[in-house]
Design a protein that fits this description.
Layout: E1 6-12, H1 19-27, E2 35-40, H2 47-57, E3 61-65, H3 72-82, E4 87-90, E5 96-97, H4 101-111, E6 117-126, E7 132-135, E8 144-146, H5 148-156, E9 168-170, H6 171-176, H7 188-200, E10 202-214, H8 227-241, H9 250-256, H10 264-271, H11 282-300, H12 303-313, E11 317-319
Parallel strand pairs: 1-2, 1-4, 2-3, 6-10
Antiparallel strand pairs: 4-9, 5-10, 6-7, 6-9, 7-11, 8-10
Helix pairs in contact: 5-7, 5-9, 8-10, 11-12
Length: about 325
């Protein structure tokens, strides 16, 4: 991988029991990353001991500890600053990558150096219901480079997906876009995807390259605990898109309707102030409705009806358990 260096960054907070699984998913690759950073955010369990034991066995691994809890986004930014690779991949400690993730993305990024990232399909697994489905299954069936304009068109069709659990980013582009903004909490990855993707385009690999676990203690599920704070973060994203730094990508984001993935919550935020109504594009309204249908179906429908809802309204290829 000397011609294209990829650093893997794994942020962790109190997920000691999952660390061997995610590390093994990287070490079992046919092509390995150039380095693996295990970033501990001042865990109170035995995470550091597990990390240090893994590092003793595998020379690719480097353990980095935060003296105090900084939060997931700041921890990932710290890992990116330490990384020697030109490209970086971030996978949460409780998720895992599939075989081929480094090899496939490296091939695409070598072929398309203009791309800011390369992403594949991700299998989402709900640990409480046992349901699992593919996010990104409606993306093109052949590997390809997507220009920002092509990303807009795919999004307007409800087909655009960027899966952060397996995406490889060009480090310089991600850092120029501000990296993972801590103030955006759970939505920093979505915002960064827009900031780099709608500027430089992306590569797509039509293979399942990661598993994302929806479980009660995950960072992802924390976003649903405080709806007022969640809406405040969404409002902050809209403010950032109006700022000089992101004004170039804002029109593409609006035309794409990509914010519709936040559903009714984002709709409320936009409707609350006339200055935000410019985001109420037809694509946003349509995609917001689709998202609401998917959430309602997954939470309240019987399993068979929920699967039908996922397939019909959300553009996902459901996987049987």
């Amino acid at each position: 991988m000397s011609e294209l260096r990829i650093s893997a960054i794994i942020p962790n907070f109190n997920h000691a029991k999952f660390l061997p699984r995610v590390v093994a998913s990287y070490l079992n690759q046919p092509v390995l990353p150039d380095e693996i950073f295990l970033m501990d955010d001042a865990s109170t369990d035995n995470s550091v001991e597990v990390m240090e034991e893994l590092a003793r066995k595998h020379p690719l691994i480097r353990v980095v500890r935060n003296e105090k809890n900084m939060g997931c986004n700041a921890t990932m930014n710290r890992g990116m600053e330490l990384a020697k690779g030109d490209y970086v991949i971030f996978t949460a400690a409780d998720d895992e990558v599939r075989p081929g993730v480094i090899e496939r993305h490296a091939r695409m990024l070598r072929a398309h150096p203009e791309a800011s990232l390369s992403s594949g399909i991700c299998e989402w697994r709900c640990t409480t219901t046992g349901m699992h489905w593919l996010n990104g299954g409606a993306m093109p069936s052949k590997e390809c480079y997507l220009s920002p304009t092509e990303m807009v068109l795919l999004s307007r069709q409800g087909r655009l997906a960027i899966n952060n659990q397996n995406a490889v980013y060009k480090k310089s582009d991600l850092q120029a876009a501000g990296g993972w903004l801590p103030e955006l909490h759970w939505f920093a990855d979505w915002f960064a995807d827009c900031a780099v993707g709608f500027r430089h385009g992306m590569c797509h690999v039509p293979e399942v390259l990661s598993n994302f676990y929806l479980q009660p203690g995950s960072y992802y599920n924390a976003k649903s605990r405080n709806y007022a704070e969640r809406r405040a973060v969404m409002a902050r994203m809209l403010e950032l898109f109006d700022s000089e730094q992101y004004r170039d990508v804002a029109p593409l984001v609006r035309r794409s309707g990509f914010m519709g993935g936040f559903g009714w919550s984002m709709m409320r935020v936009i409707l609350s102030r006339p200055g935000r109504w410019k985001n109420l594009t037809p694509a946003f309204v349509w995609l917001s409705g689709k998202r609401c249908t998917e959430v309602i179906g997954r939470r309240f429908f019987p399993d068979w009806l929920a699967r039908w809802s996922l397939k019909t309204f959300y553009g996902m290829r459901h996987q049987q358990g």
